[in-house]
Amino acid sequence: MTSNNSYEYIDRESIGESLLCKLCSNPFINPVVTQCDYTYCGACIEPKIRSGSNCPSRSCNQLLTTAHLKSNTSMSLTISILDNLKGSCPERRIDCARKDVGCSWSGPRNTYDEHMNTCLFEKLRPMIDILYKVIEKQSFHIEELQKQKTQLEQKNAQVEQQKTQLEQQKTELGQQTTQLDQQKTKLKQQTTELG
Questions:
Q1: CA dist., res. 21 & res. 189, Å (int)
Q2: What are the start and end residues of every segment in region (Disordered) (predicted)?
């Protein structure tokens, strides 16, 4: 069994040579055609173009450029059809639907139902969904409390500022009262002196 990215080939020998890239020896992925009509995986031929190499075909051996590449539409169509078929293949490897909550099972599609009947994460899913909702509500509540805390801190800062201003005004009032008392005392002295 060999693999190519997300593909797994159970019977590698049954894959026709015309579907194999001459560079990676795997079935084509995003096939492109060179000026000499050889088809390669796009990801296999692009590094050769960037390095200024010649065409890997022995019959061509011309300098490769991106201008010479064209999409192999018939091959792309065939691969698209194969991709659609792959989705229904009973041996296709798939992950458990509960991977998002921690299940690490991965296996052939034809054993998926059996796994789901014994998957602990599947059985715990209703409780996990409830916990996620509780966490979501608590997160929202925490955000609201943080906003309220920020508003209270701003109000406390305003109150502290007003207290400081009030203390300054008290101090000024005290000074003015002292000055007034001094003026009264002077006025009494002057009244006494005159009278």
A1: 117
A2: 161-195
